[in-house]
Batch of 4 targets.
Target 1
Amino acid sequence: MEGSVYVTSAVHVVQPVELTDAERACGVLCVLFTPGHRRGAFVDAQRVGFTRGATLIDPTSPVARSATVGQGVFINAACVVAGGCELGDWVLVNRSASIGHHARIGTYASIGPGVVLAGNVSIGRGAVIGAGAVVLPEVTIGDNAVVAAGSVVRDAVPPHSLVAGNPCRVTKIGIEGYKGFSI
């Protein structure tokens, strides 16, 4: 990703040198891919003058007034974000996810479609929670960890690990985040 910036509107993708003055003047970037790619795209975009990330919340997704939502966050359709939650910068919450009270989601984390995070969970920086996974109350998921789709997480997940199953178990340790991109 080094040296690349992707700006999209419909199917329009450009390199930094191809940005129009109007695109540069916008000053806002919206990036929706894997955690490592989101980070790389934002860092590259800063080099060409983008100053902040657009936070987008679908109108069908209630977000509690007591929740804190960082810059560059994308909350897709039919999600619920409960009271006291903290979503770091560049978090991606996919459709129909449910985030329970006082959850803490680290910068660049990705929450898959239909995920259920119970109350007081902590999701580490750059972690990825796969589609339909369930994380039980007061569980911590480490930085750059990956929870496989459909998993049920009852216990803490170490950083840089892959877990899968019901109940989930560690299947790999020492991974470099989702698809080899750590934050």
Target 2
Amino acid sequence: MFISKRLLLIIGILVVVVMLAAGIGLAYAFSALGQQSATNANISATVTASALASPTPGNGQRRVTGVIKSLDNQSFVLAANQGKRMITVEVDAQTKYVRRGKSASFSDLQPGETVVVLGTYDASSKTMTATRVTMASSTSTPTPSPTAAP
């Protein structure tokens, strides 16, 4: 039983078209998955969830993660979005401070420290009124101990 060359050519072209469509579909699916994974990796590389667990924003509040650039009397400047955006965070007597799940205070904040701020954001003035500031757990670097020479 012979199959004509014309039929073989048509079957070959159909196989190539189906494989091409499947390849494009898989490439698109992996591309979208890769972008989502890269976004999640950037977030988790910047701040670990266990170190900065904070409640979900509600009632028009926003959550911003960043590094403290400078401290003032009742405010601080926060570098968010990997330093691409500066936000002035204002605090008041009702602002709650948390470090490692325990209560803290404004005086515990330090420049260079990563924090998650929950509060209301005013885009026109680029200021945020904080209701809660969650500080990263401080990781101290071990101090080398002197060793005796043998």
Target 3
Amino acid sequence: MNRTSSEQLRFASKWQKQGRCHVWTGPLDRDGYGTFYFRHKNRRAHRVAWFFCHGDLAADAVINHTCRNRACVNPQHLQVITSTENVLRNSTSGPYLNSQKTHCPLGHPYDRSYTGKRGTVRYCSICNAAKQKRLRAKWTGTDKLNV
């Protein structure tokens, strides 16, 4: 038996089928992902499951659990996506929650946007105009005049 086969057998002994998921019964990390010692290093179990089924994975690649179960190692529930997609798919993340907002804190619609270093930023033109007016007054010193 070659090395990969023995590792695959050891891996297979660490999960149980629960519904459609293959739930990791081995150790979990603090985030709830399974961990598996593979090739002289502790790795996340779902990444090892991906490797066994699909081959190498880039170190910066993100694997999304379509079942939303972090302990699942079912390769059919895993897909490679960008880190941006991963954040926007997580319904508890700040970027996801902000992407769902349609109005500014004062109730005006987000009607403008620009693309900067941090991606696309949406803003309200009414509040932005008021902010620019305040800044212009501050820069010119007219906000301190008692006129």
Target 4
Amino acid sequence: MSPSSTLGRSIAAVFLGFVAVVVLSLATDQLLHVLDIYPPWGQPMWSPALNLLALTYRTVYTVLAGYLTARLAPHAPMRHVAILAVIGTVAGVAGAVTALTVADLGPKWYPIALAVTAFPSVWLGGRLYRAGS
């Protein structure tokens, strides 16, 4: 396998893991909005139970993303998982900073929890892959 092919597969593994979290999370959000479980888009969601629900499925999806990334990695699956975990953590911190300083869309603990759980959730997904392979 050529180095450029390996690099391409590495980038794809991390990218697809990230896209999986985003697509699954947004699709679930949309479904819960359509079912009138969540308030309409753009309105704050203050219910602790609903925020905990969102945190739960996002955590599950993040674990799945770590698993997927490790599964697709051409070599060193946990290195790919670590890269995805860092990207997810940076994105989570950026989202938390935005939510805490600009937007008022719900309780302050929720975006912080997303940022804090990003790395361990992705890592767990990678470890689950490693345990099964």
